[in-house]
Amino acid sequence: MSMSAPRHAWVSLRRSSLPRQRWFIVILALLGGCVLAMNTIVAGHVRDQIDAADVGKRLNYVVVDSSGRGSNGPIDAAARQQIMAMNHVAGFYEWSQAGLLCDDDNGLPQIVWATAQIPDVPPVTVAFDGRTRPLRSGEVIVPDAVNGRDLKALLGTTINVSYQRKTKASEAEAVPTKLKVVGLYDSSRPNNDGPDTVYINVEDAKKWEAANAGMSPQAFDKQGVSRAYVEADSRAHVADVHRQLSQAGFAATSQADVVGYADQMTSDTQRMQIVLIVVICLSALVLGVSVGSTISRQRGSQIAVFKAFGRSGEWILGCLEMEAFLLGVVMALAIVVVGLVLCGAAMALTAAGVHLGPVAMTLVPLPDVLKQGAWFPLLLVVGVPLGCLPRTVASVRSHKPYELLRSQ
Length: 408
What we know:
408 residues; 12 helices; 19% strand; transmembrane helix; transmembrane; membrane; ABC transporter permease
């Protein structure tokens, strides 16, 4: 009887509880492993795609286009004032685009579309001359490749271009200017600004678009731009800003509309995960009750012997609850192992090029299993002893010590 309580609990677990409850444990381990794998593979990578689409708060913007059906026309100062007065609007940025003729044989197309760079909606930059920052007047970001020709050598150089200035109704003159290439963007991942795009300072874009229309910069500002980016104060309020713009007669679109399915997929996955977690936690309590019932039926003589040798009821209850706790630990470890195996299988299939639909957007890093759901198996460590507690308490109280052993 010199065996300690933890050692006695471990021996009882290994000899009795595990063999009797093994199938219950296997089923819960498979369910729990699926929960971890689902959370890691599906929800985690859907969230990664949203984050990739939301680089620089991209999803916070609503695009107002004056050429859209039902639009109020060019977006002028009055429209800007009206938009800025709307609820949850944090910023307003004009967009402009002008055609440029490339005067050098440097690999760029003969005609490129110089587009205003919008804050927080940059193209995917692969290189920048110095620290990434907003473009200044006279600077340009060009694609890293065009028609199979590598343009990385242009970084840091000055290119010669010309913009068109309208002089008469059907006549225009070319006005040469120079631009310094300060950045390269990934041509395989363009923004929604059309083909053959280069990015410049917004004031340069407005000046050149005004010249192309035969207007002074002041007259162009008064007329208004054809497109603008409206920034919501948070992604949660994008839909509200979009609704206000539509009600005010502006043609509006947002990238959040395009990736909205991902939000719904994430929320559906999370709801399914919550349901499975509730089911598994209830199952853990049921397992605890089952363990408690087994103890009350089979450990009666053992409890009586312990009492006959002077062990207190608290010590005996501690042994039994320790056994239930260790059973919960075994279940938790089994769930983590199954989750790791499932995620590892998905990673192996993805690396081998097997298409798994929305599940296999990127490689599955195994540490994500623990990062995403390590807290969940801990619920089982608590649930099993709690489910076992009522029956073990009743069993310890109801069994009397063996008088025969006590008298010796």
